Amino acid sequence: MSTVLEQIEQQIAKLSSHAVKKNTGNIRTIADGVAKIDGLSDVMYNEMVSFPGGAIGIALNLEEDEVGCVILGDVSQLKEGDEVTTTGRLLSVPVGKALLGRAVDALGNPVDGKGPIDSKETYPVEKIAPGIIVRKSVTQPLFTGIMAIDSMIPIGRGQRELIIGDRGTGKTTIAIDTIINQAKANQVGLASGDPKFRPVYSIYVAIGQKNSNIVRTISALEAAGALQYTIIVAAPAADNPANQYLAPYSGAAMGEWFMENGLDALIVYDDLSKHAVAYRQISLILKRPSGREAYPGDVFYLHSRLLERSARLDGKGSLTALPIIETLAGDVSAYIPTNVISITDGQIFLETDHFNQCIRPAVSVGLSVSRVGSSAQIKVTKQVGGKLKGELAQFRELAAFAQFGSDLDAKTKGQLERGARIVELFKQPAFSPVPIELQVAILFAMQKNFFDAIDTKKVVAAAAAMKEFFTTRKDTLLTEIRTKAALDKDLEAKLQAACDEWKSGYTA
Amino acid sequence: MAAHAKQAQQLARQLFRLSLADGAVSPAKVTGVLEYVEKHRPANPIMVLKAYERLIATELGRSQALVEHAGAVSEDVLHSIAAVLGKRYGRTLTATTRANPALIAGLRVRVGDDVYESSVAGQLASLAASV
Ligand SMILES: Nc1ncnc2c1ncn2[C@@H]1O[C@H](COP(=O)(O)OP(=O)(O)OP(=O)(O)O)[C@@H](O)[C@H]1O
Ligand SMILES: [Mg+2]
Fold it and tell me: What ipTM does this complex have?
């Protein structure tokens, strides 16, 4: 008896080795890019499920008798009763250097019409962030190319620094400037042949933005020659909320590839306010309970698990994150801003008043902090810019008082004038980051009072002329500053001499 | 609306539990449940019965091996399929057959929401999906 059974078993085993097991379900309802599915009893949380016609879904709600899936891609063909199958795979995206210079959607498919992407590897979109043991503290600088930030709110590799401000205050511009600055540094560093030089690759994730804005960003990067070091992940406003929800995680996966392979990368999430809105929309359709501002209870986890993936890994590379948050009327105490502020290592606060007074970039030095970056700041910036933050704070305080009275003593007047000049000096047009060695030269000149004789209104022009002078005439000196990264007697004398030379030749 | 649906779902689940005997759907108990519903008329009876039907159908599907075939299938093969799969799921399965020429050749076995596919059509489909 049992031998007969065994015989049959063997036969079946042979048969079923050809048989493919699938777990299936049927669409019960479908609306707004979210499907409720009967069956799928074997599905895992976050597993990819496949819909007829090639659409892909992610199982987000596993309930007793139904599964809630967000659908990525075209939903117009799907209808009630359609069969859905599990894939046994978690969602993953292509990673690697082949993506540089390309624009992709949330699933890593090219959207720039430049043909298929030849990437050999994929990484899961959702990954547990590195633990405590493998992390290393932040000690290497990442220069934004924005003088106000690099000198007073320095950022280190592996750090998460929030860019926060109202609509249209230049948030995106700061992020793009930073990406451009990395590209410029890469070009110089890679050409120098210095074996210790570590290039920074960038990933720009556009969430819920107008297509026209994304195009503008891409062309700004292209014009600056930065696109070849950058991956663009685009989930525009017209994309369904599932793609917008997913895009930052896809970008993080692409960034992790660089980090895991011993390289340094920078990721910009523009912006996480719209990301939270997309997630709220999905959650409401999935009928999850909602809390403050109608956001679901796990909206904190939504961003914490994303930003925790940025780190500097022991013996490997780093992933620096610049998340962007939009505030309403400067209110940083709203739900999403407070959450993200508490997860990041500091914030760059952009002030609408500054922006409107043409103090651009509109960085508010008083309200901005970098909690870990100062350990990454190079010595020379500390030497020339160490006192700036205090001086500026004092200036703002005095300026507020000075509005009331005209009788000011000479000392106060002097401080006010100096402060006003520093403010002018930090003005910078969009898409023109300043290399760190040039920043040092300018700040040195400021420190040594070279701008005191110049009319406040003409400081911007003078600084521009000085930049021009140094880049065209003092190239070797700039290289020396960059490589030494600290001021010694000799370098200081050379800088002083160069500034004197500039002064004698400059007429305002 | 949502609250109604939830209540109906809850009631359906209670009725479903009452319909089981020794872990399997008992026809006698189902008749009893239907009589009860008829007599007591809960709110939204249609919604309740639809949800109830779905639960019963899912449960019945779990103890059934639906064998779809393109060619002929012998009794022996049917029995062995039921036996092997029954062992895998740890319950007795009854095999039923349904001719499905769309498979081209081979078999497709469905137990609950699991599908075992060894048909030409299935292989073609997975080939199509992978290229
Ligand atoms: N440093 C700057 N100098 C001059 N103009 C600037 C500067 N930074 C930004 N701008 C201009 O201000 C406008 C808004 O900038 P940007 O798009 O970066 O702001 P945003 O905060 O990202 O806006 P949104 O809230 O729409 O995303 C743009 O037209 C940009 O060119
Ligand atoms: Mg923007």
Answer: 0.71
